[in-house]
């Protein structure tokens, strides 16, 4: 199994090293991504400044939902979010290169790029999630921790499925890459 994953580890390692070679640009990308996550959090806060509750949720409950959804989406975006570049490969005629290689097509598309700047979005989601769990006085029992982890895992799997389905739809739709930009 380790031998099968070796080419992907080598490719991902090379891309990570390439992103780190321009440290100022990488830091700016991280800060920009962090600010986007904070703006989304501020939107929730602004809504709850005007009202006491929405749909039976107070601010701390809404932060828990936001933390779960944002973390799950950010993990999926980190792992497979760049498959929405498939239309560029199709238009340029370079998609055939992926088809000729002896690796699975989806695995090649997933490893074709990695954006470490998306790590800061995961950081925003995890931070909000931890604060919300503590603010809601959720007892940290093994069952609750398992539920939290399974929620993140299944939420990420759902978002990954949406990304992959939208990438597959690119063969039939014209420039519909924005389909994956809609958030859960």
From TrEMBL:
Membrane-spanning residues: 21-39, 59-80, 119-135, 147-174
UniProt keyword annotations, A-Z: Membrane, Transmembrane, Transmembrane helix
InterPro entries in alphabetical order: ABC-2_transporter-like (IPR010390)
Protein's name in the database: ABC-2 family transporter protein
């Amino acid at each position: 199994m380790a031998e099968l994953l070796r080419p992907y580890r080598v490719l991902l390692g090379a891309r990570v090293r390439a992103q780190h070679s321009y440290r100022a640009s990488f830091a700016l990308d991280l800060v920009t991504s962090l600010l986007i996550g904070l703006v989304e959090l501020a939107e929730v806060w602004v809504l709850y400044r005007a009202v006491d509750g929405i749909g039976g949720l107070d601010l701390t409950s809404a932060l828990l939902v936001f933390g779960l959804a944002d973390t799950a989406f950010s993990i999926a975006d980190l792992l497979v979010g760049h498959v929405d570049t498939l239309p560029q490969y199709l238009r340029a005629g370079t998609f055939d290169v992926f088809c000729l290689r002896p690796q699975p097509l989806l695995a090649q598309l997933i490893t074709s790029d990695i954006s470490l700047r998306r790590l800061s979005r995961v950081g925003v989601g995890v931070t909000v999630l931890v604060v919300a769990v503590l603010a809601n006085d959720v007892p940290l029992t093994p069952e609750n921790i398992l539920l939290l982890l399974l929620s993140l895992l299944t939420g990420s799997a759902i978002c990954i499925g949406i990304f992959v389905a939208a990438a597959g739809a690119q063969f039939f739709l014209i420039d519909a890459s924005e389909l994956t930009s809609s958030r859960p």
